[in-house]
Write a structure and sequence with these properties.
- It is built from five helices and no strands.
- By secondary structure, it is mostly helical.
- The chain has one domain.
- α2 (44-66) packs across α4 (101-109).
- The protein starts with 10 loop residues before the first helix and ends in a 19-residue tail after the last helix.
């Protein structure tokens, strides 16, 4: 398939994307912290809200860091890397999470009979380590003059 068949973001789209990706990362971090630290465990509804938010944001970040070229306007890490012109980049840090993609799709994104078969066990600490490693790997590959757009100051907030 010719490269022109794939979505090519504009400069304006590229410059507006970091806050949206960082929002996903912030929400992932906050929701996984609630799950891992036990916040909301006394209330199963709050725990499930945190768990589902964690898994949804993990799924979105998996697509960002490891997603394939697409005709859709999905934001991909490779759009920001110089090597993407010759080779489509994907993180090497998310093998565990990538292996869970079907379970994420069937358990979180779709109402399926697969859910009737039982709940998967989610190793949130392992998922979190992988996403943090993928983010560091991505930042290290960015051109030096573009890294600051991807770094949040402590307490920084982004919006959906």
């Amino acid at each position: 398939m010719a490269l022109s068949n794939y979505y090519a973001p504009t400069e304006q789209e590229l410059s507006g994307a970091p806050p949206k990706v960082l929002y996903e990362l912030q929400m992932f971090r906050a929701s996984v912290a609630r799950c891992v630290n036990g916040d909301g465990n006394a209330d199963p509804v709050l725990h499930n809200i945190s768990l589902e938010a964690t898994l949804l944001h993990a799924r979105n970040l998996l697509d960002f860091f490891c997603g394939k070229k697409t005709k859709d306007d999905d934001i991909r890490a490779a759009h920001f890397l110089q090597e993407s012109e010759t080779k489509w980049w994907k993180s090497s840090q998310l093998e565990y999470l990538a292996a869970l993609k079907k379970d994420l799709n069937y358990s979180i994104n779709h109402l399926t009979y697969r859910r009737v078969q039982g709940k998967p066990r989610w190793d949130l600490v392992r998922i979190s380590r992988g996403i943090e490693a993928a983010f560091k790997e991505f930042i290290a590959r960015l051109p030096d003059n573009e890294q600051m757009a991807w770094i949040l100051e402590d307490g920084g907030r982004t919006t959906a």
